[in-house]
Amino acid sequence: MRKSFTALLTISVLATGVLLSGCGKSTSGTKQTATIMEQADISSFDSTMITDVGALETVNNTQEGLYRMKNSTTVEPGLATSIVKPTQNGTVYTFKLRKNLKWSNGDALTANDFVFAWRRAVTPETKAADAYRFLPIKNAQAIENGKLAPSKLGIKALNKTTVQVTLAQATPYFKYLCASVPFLPQDQKVVNKYGKAYGTTSDKTVYSGPFVVKKWTTSSSRWDLTKNPKYWDKKNVKLNKVTFLVTKSPETALSLYQSGKLDNIVLAGQQAAQEANNKGYLSYPSGETDYIAYNYRTKALRNANIRKAISLTINRKSLTKNVLKNGAKAPYGIAPEAMSKNPSNGKDFAKDASVKQSVDYNPTLAKKYWAKGMKELGMSKMTLNLVCYDVDAFKQSAEFIQSSAQKYLKGLKININVQPKVQAITTMQQKKGYDLGFTNWIASYPDLDEFFQLSTTDNVNNAGNYSSSAYDAVYKKANTTDSNNAQARYNDFKQASQILMNDQAILPVNQGQIARLNTPSLKGVNYAAAQGISLKDAYRTNK
């Protein structure tokens, strides 16, 4: 649940085949081109102002920051020469840039381009949607509140190739921020030249990444990417041209793929189940958890037995497999898979921290909890109002939950109130007018904090009004005392997860997946849930 779009969890998956280097595959005589589905129109290429998914996908192929995402939990150097180990208790990062970096127009790309872009993002007058993501940096909060000048932000250019960043406190996920769109550099000369028109056409933007954009305006339904001759790693970019085609209808996209007019598409709804045996099919975690928040302002839902009873009536495996059929999976808790691993043994956090009963299906036990809770409340009947988004998957899930809970819990009635997504989010942020709030969260970056901040006391996105001093204490410890100790921080979040799920403070419904089709002759494609398709390493074979 977010008021504006934020970047999601980055997942890297190699498409069918292996990387070009050393693979022995012949590409001679093969035209190095590709045509890719884009799901939505694009409103801007200004990396400070971007709020839409489509733009993120194109920008991450045409711009590059200090780091790039290599896979779900690993960053690799981008414009920086190496991954930096912070000093001064994890608060100071000193980045060395590659020598002789150039923008696509030939301008020198220097440390000052990062200083300019980051200051611009936190300037209140800019009204950058993702300005809050800079809050870990020293003085960002005061600048965004209008109490300090942007020049006081904790970033400076020590020389043309050295950027130094000072954080307000140690922030383990800062490395992921350095690989995200809001933290890209910008050419000050070009931004100042075009002013408010900067980023509104492909010609009013310059590029630091593998490709440059051609033939794009805000009204375009297709545009091209061509290899950037000024990119520092251009020798390893194999595709000469990529065409993005806006295809809003999933049915149309599938038809175009089947006829060879699109090489890579996103599958929607039950297409995932229908195409699962296709050679080009792949699925990867989206960094999303869909869940129901029990509103603690409703007296009956402050009863733990009632909350546990409702959860135990839901057969999540049946819901995802037989109803949704969109690739989603049964969850283990609030955090989805592929968010974090135990530093000591490599176990995935979702499974490692799971409280089985909190996501189990056990109608017999549900009835026992229900009877006990109803007796404690002195009630024989209960009516609950469930608010959910006007999105097919949410409506289908809500109806499944309604049917299951009412089937097994005597005297329960659930009314479903479907609202437009923005309205539903507002309703839940106001924390009134519902008993069950069906919402979701999509990670901005692969760090557990993304999901566990949701249940802290007074968090605006704490839709259920849950409050636990024990939970708040261990959450705070993870981000203060233990922020520089990876194992201790992991253990803190594991404890927080188990407090949350033993309380049955929420009802996890499913964890999301992204399903795609990629033509088998297009190899070396990487995927990022937030950033879409990454084509730096992609190439075409003649097979």
- Quaternary structure annotation: single chain
CATH architecture of the largest domain: Alpha-Beta Complex
Structural class based on helices, strands and sheet pairing: alpha+beta
Poorly predicted ranges = 2-24
Total count of domains: 2
Going across the major beta sheet, what is the strand order?
A: 10-15-11-14-12-13
Give the name of the CATH superfamily of the largest domain.
Dipeptide-binding Protein, Domain 1
β content, as a range? 15-25%
End-to-end separation: 43 Å
Instruction: Give me the count of strands.
Output: 19
How would you sum up the major sheet? 6 strands, mixed
C-alpha Rg (nearest Å): 24 Å
Average pLDDT figure: 92
Task: Tell me the helix content.
Answer: 25-40%
CATH fold label of the largest domain? Dipeptide-binding Protein, domain 1
**Principal-axis shape:** globular
* Highest CATH level, the class of the largest domain: Alpha Beta
The tally of helices reads: 16
Organism: Secundilactobacillus similis DSM 23365 = JCM 2765
Pfam family, one: SBP_bac_5
Main location: other
InterPro entries: Peptide/Ni-bd (IPR030678), SBP_5 (IPR039424), SBP_5_dom (IPR000914)
